[in-house]
Amino acid sequence: MTRGRFITLEGGEGAGKTTQIRLLADALVKWEKRVVVTREPGGSPGAEEIRGLLVAGETGRWGPVTEALLHTAARRDHLERTVWPALEAGHWVICDRFFDSTMAYQGYGLGLGRELVATLQTAALGDFRPDLTLILDLPVEDGLARAAARRGGEDRYERMDVAFHHRLREGFLDIAAREPERCAVVDAGHPVEAVQAAILDHVTRRLGAS
Ligand code: T5A
User: Fold this and answer.
1) Which DSSP helix (H) or strand (E) runs through 9?
2) Would you state the pLDDT for residue 138?
3) Count of C-beta atoms within a 10 Å radius of residue 56
4) Is residue 94 a contact partner of residue 5, using CB atoms and an 8 Å limit?
5) DSSP 59
6) What are the pLDDT digits (tens) for 98-126?
7) Which residue among 65, 96, 155, 187 is best mutated to probe the pocket of ligand 1, counting the most ligand atoms within 8 A of its Cβ?
8) What predicted TM-score, i.e. pTM, was given to this entire model?
9) What DSSP character marks residue 6?
């Protein structure tokens, strides 16, 4: 059995990941891949319980280290219960956020720094990495407006101050610059169809899917 591929989508609030994941999954199914769509925090029963602790409540509910540990604990459970078995079974797994979100949100946004977050990720992941990470980039104000229009801004992270969102946008761009072989930055400010075309181009060229 050939191992599947692991594709992650990343970006700030309202970048359009959920929209694009649906379209990417449809394209992969047309190309006769078996597809699993999942998300973080969450994606397994235990990790979904931890998600409830993370996305609701006051913005300062957790200290930054505790928050990073909760995301990392949820990630390990998600990998063991959902992602690794699906990849072993030959599925293409598309994940809405993964470890780059911990680096961007907790490492850059909340100021924990790269080193501590990288240490946590090594503990949870070993040397496992996505085959391709698509970073959807959008000006902060546009993303927050999109997210608020969709959901009313009830998410804890959407309510963090604008400076936080600028730090995490820079964080994602820095991650992409450090790992250009794994990461591709996609301009998410274009219409849905144009963003989709850019994503399919990366998936085709980098992973050979078509
Ligand atoms: N988090 C997560 C951490 O802090 N650390 C971590 O380690 C991890 C894993 C999860 C939160 O947890 C944080 C980050 C997050 O804040 P979530 O509920 O999963 O929260 O929310 P998000 O991942 O932020 O997802 P959103 O729903 O906010 O945004 P999406 O999925 O990026 O965007 P989407 O597709 O829902 O689109 C938003 C709106 O924009 C429209 C859509 O129709 C929708 O209304 N839209 C467009 N409009 C114009 N042009 C386009 N191209 C558009 N694309 C979509």
Assistant:
1) strand 6-11
2) 97
3) 11
4) no
5) T
6) 999 999 999 999 999 999 999 999 999 99
7) 155
8) 0.96
9) E
